[in-house]
Amino acid sequence: MSVPSHAKPEVIAHLTQAFAFPISAYDGLVDQFIKELHEGLTHENRMPMIPTFVYELPTGEEAGVILSLDLGGTNLRVCRTTLSGKGNFEIIHKKWTISDTLKKGPGKELFAWIADRIEEFLDVQCHAIHSESNYPLGMTFSFPCEQLDINVGKLFAWTKGFRGNDILGQDVVKVLQDCIDAKKLNITVNALINDTVGTLLATTYKHPGCEIGIIFGTGTNCAYLESQSEIVKIKSGAANYTSPTNHQVINTEWGAFGNASGALPANEYDNRLDTRSSQPGKQRYEKMVSGLYISELTRLVIHDLAAKGELFVEEPGKPKTDEQLGDLAIKERFDGAMMGSIEGDESTNLDTIEHHFLTNYNLKTSTSDRETIKYICQLISARSARLSAVGIAALIKKRKLLNEPRKVIVGIDGSLFNKYPHFVQHLQGALNEIFNPATVQSRISLIHAEDGSGVGGAIAAYLACKQQGQPV
Ligand code: GLC
After folding, report:
1. Counting CB atoms within 10 angstroms of each CB, which of 66, 140, 206, 295 has the fewest?
2. Does some domain include residue 92?
3. Quick check: is 248 in a domain?
4. Measured distance CA(462)–CA(65) in Å, rounded
5. What's the pLDDT at 130?
6. What CATH number did the domain enclosing 82 receive?
7. What is the pLDDT of residue 211?
């Protein structure tokens, strides 16, 4: 990351210090992360560490045609996956953007809309709207649920800006099944998984041996295969107390790391973002790592500098007012895609940045402004990648995976990992610093999970059918 030559040195020094994440911070934070993983497996009300009732990973030989649906932070997808064994699959899907009205409106309306989309998909893509045979459907639902069985999950919090509080505490599978039944569709929702569990299942289907699935996207989270004996908080006699395989997949909900301990190096901007969020004090790690939040952090920094007369100044001594800053002064009006394209701007004049600010906010930028803005994006995304590496390292160390002879395969999906310029290099660089380059190179593979949520949902439904002794 090159330090901007035209920008004000004192501004750059302040930002560099605020977002610094020195190598010396890694070890302490990785140890604290491991401690919080253990605490979550032992006690309630810590890092959620949710047992998922998924007791085994696929072999790659599963075969069948299965529906799945993927409700993430930004889009809804309905998918039809044909698993054909040997790690092969074909998927057809349709995607809809979830409007702000649906996100912030009642949960029941969101689910009724989802059932409408399933019907549309069956009709247009499968020509099977009132099929005789019953379709199993795997539901990939990327929000924290307390799982009571593979097909029962009580939503305990919305994240990523969703607000449908009317269904908090309810079983989301039942809410969806009721909406499907009201439309008389011959579909049974037989598995509920988190997107990270989907990522893990989809990666393992293609790369047997993978035990960790991660999302670095709008939100961030991780699922992994844990020994049943480590999950101390499962009470004897509980439905999932005894696992048929002595293992169980855990949905960590690691976005909650640092909530109670305050272990994360939060600065004034992190704290401002947290205070103004819909859930202050929650998801502190996610708020420093994932796409939704790092773009909002970037906006907060740019807005702050503009208000102090350090950016977009046309007349000396006259900082821009909020009215003049327009959308830039409004929460979440600066998205991750824009941040990525700013960071990816390699032109001499930083034309993309100039264009973005002119067309989206009607703001003229000087060379110094453009360099400063790019630098802010770089600082925030590099810190996000380093913190991401802390989570991965903690999981690898907790499971002592480097003590085993085989390679550690980590399946990863999400827009930050797949699309954000330099994110993967920073992540890899940080892992090199935590372990060492030779170990990382020879022992750790970060693999892009191909459609983790869609295929993973289908595999979960397959495994649930098998667990329940039903044909696929
Ligand atoms: C949020 C959700 C979590 C999900 C993650 C990635 O952290 O709480 O369930 O897995 O986003 O989509």
Report:
1. 206
2. yes
3. no
4. 9
5. 64
6. 3.30.420.40
7. 96
Annotation says 195 is catalytic: yes
| 318 Cα to the center of ligand 1, angstroms | 42
Mutational pocket test of ligand 1: of 75, 194, 249, 294, the residue with most ligand atoms within 8 Å of the beta carbon: 194
The range of the structural domain enclosing residue 100 comes to 63-206+451-464
pLDDT in tens, 2-22: 678 787 899 999 999 999 988
Digit-coded pLDDT (tens) for 228-261: 999 999 988 888 888 889 999 999 999 999 999 9
Does the Cβ of 74 fall within 6 Å of ligand 1?
no
299 closest CA partner among 320, 330, 271, 342: 330
Closest ligand 1 atom to the C-alpha of 283? 7
Asked if residue 196 has its Cβ within 6 Å of ligand 1, the reply is yes
- Residue 340 structure tokens: 């990525």
Would you tell me how many other CB atoms lie within 10 Å of the CB of residue 76?
19
Nearest to 345 by CA among 337, 333, 353: 353
258 occurs within a structural domain: no
Structural Rg of the chain based on CA atoms: 23
CB of 413 closer than 6 angstroms to any ligand 1 atom: no
